[in-house]
Amino acid sequence: MTTPNPLENTHLQSPARLSKKTYVIAGILCTVYGYDELLPETKNVACLWLLNPRLQTQACMEPVAFSVLNHWNQRLEQKQDRHKSQGLIAISFDQRNHGSREIEPLANQSWEAGNEKHAQDMFSIFHGTSLDTSQLITYLPSYIFPSSERHISSNLVLGISLGGHAAWHCAFHEPRITTAIVIIGCPDYTRLMSNRARLSKLETWTATTPPGSSFIGSVDFPIDLVKVVERYDPAGMCLGVLSRSEQSFEQAPSSERQRELVPLLKHCLEGKRIMNLAGAADKLVPYAQAKPYLRWLKRAISPHGWFKEGHVTLEDIVFDGVRHEMSPSMLSAAVRFIEESLESIPPKSREIASKI
Q1: How many other CB atoms sit within 10 Å of the CB of residue 28?
Q2: pLDDT at 161 over 60
Q3: What is the value of pTM for the model shown?
């Protein structure tokens, strides 16, 4: 399973360039796009956090920033009361162990590429990136608006591949993130890596009968990693890892379990908007590995679901013929969802403390 740049064919033509400024915040090199294009009368500014794929750097997210910002700025120009709308900037930074932050190249590689600790490395990297996002949300305003001339009114995140996994964590664990766009990412790390272990023909998968029956808890997916996944992974939090079965995805939780899950999901997801975009032909992060949990979550938040009072929006789209990539159609869907989110979020600061 090779890992090409998922954004290689995203843009049919280069989007118009906008301003960009660099800041070192909490020791992390950040790029802020669209600052100079903010209208002079704009006081409320939304931030779109861009999280890059595995084996790529923040630089590959630049065209996405330009595309989203150009669309939003053009939309504002058509409004007579545009001063009442939120301005929008985009921020990118390298994921942990990527680009300017790379320490050990092997840690970004897969089992097939010789990284024996692929499961530990990948989860810790994108989980760490989600924590970095929270840290940067806290400190960004004091760097870009030192005189408090503007304030951050809302935060959105868009992640691709590895960045998509991180975006799921941001959605679940960062209260200040109100909208998440996940592109070719997965909310169920256990299923994703179990499938990858099977395809990689790991000995910890093939040596048992039936194959894979002891993979979870083996040296390739240690029990201490299981504990972390159950604490932070969306599917792990809701359904566990060792305790779940295939029936867990299809059955409604018991009344007792619902009493535990409702406060959890209320704390994590209440009022949030999530878009999940997947490629039907994606073999690296197959939609089949995300589908059971997404179906479980959609039933929970449906108008007749047991968590209908959470008012969660989940738009889940699978694109025929699309592989492990962000297609032009995916970009268009993401732009539309971001604009709808910005129109629906009141232009005032959400004073909610981060979990960090």
Answers
A1: 16
A2: yes
A3: 0.93
